[in-house]
Amino acid sequence: MDELFDSLDYNDDRRIRLASHQLQGIAKKWWTTTKRANEDRGTVIIWGVFKTEFYKRFFPASYRKEKGAKFSNLKQGNLSIEDYVSKFDSLLRFAPHVANNEEAKADHFINGLNPEIFTLVNTGRPNNFADAMDQAKGAKAGILMQRGNQAAPQ
After folding, report:
1. Structural contact between residues 128 and 103, judged by C-beta atoms closer than 8 angstroms
2. SS3 state of residue 16
3. Is the confidence at residue 42, as pLDDT, over 50?
4. With contact defined as beta carbons under 8 Å apart, do 98 and 72 qualify?
5. Are 129 and 112 in contact, with CB atoms under 8 Å apart?
6. 55: pLDDT confidence band, cut at 50, 70 and 90?
7. Calpha distance 27→73 (Å, rounded)
């Protein structure tokens, strides 16, 4: 949501109004109560406060810690590159120390690749996630093409 709001140049008030409008059920009731409590304390509700309160309620520290550990230990294994990227992206938010640093993000992604792909991607050592992902996809395609050529009669 942050990326969308940034691209649309939304201010804090508009971000909160749109995000809270999307809430349903327990989350909607929670926000009504939380908003009122913050206003009663005189706390100015900015986007950062909304996100902090939301994460405290719906993503407790134990959950974030567990997901952070899953991210730290993430390996490609039997996953396709696309599935590995998807899993990487979904867990990345639980590792802000990596998410906020393109080089760290690329390093973590590369280090989780299977050895054959790791070797090909690490040779060029991309310094951002997008390049690392592109190189991994290219490496996998190259490996598959090479294997296909080896299987065909010459």
Report:
1. yes
2. helix
3. yes
4. no
5. no
6. confident
7. 31
8 Å CB contact between 81 and 87: no
Query: What's the token pair of residue 24?
Result: 């349903």
70: its two tokens: 């899953």
The count of other CB atoms within 10 Å of the CB of residue 129 is 24
With a pLDDT cut of 90, the percent of the chain lying above it is 66
Tokens of 104: 């760290």
CA distance linking residue 27 with residue 33, whole number of Å: 10
At residue 74, does pLDDT exceed 70? yes
In order of 12, 29, 104, the CA distances from 121 in angstroms are: 40, 48, 15
Cα dihedral: 91, 96, 99, 101 (round 10): -160
CB 92 within 8 A of CB 70: no
Model-level pTM?
0.69
Per-domain residue ranges for the chain?
2-58, 65-148
| CB proximity list for 142: less than 8 A, separation 6 or greater | 120
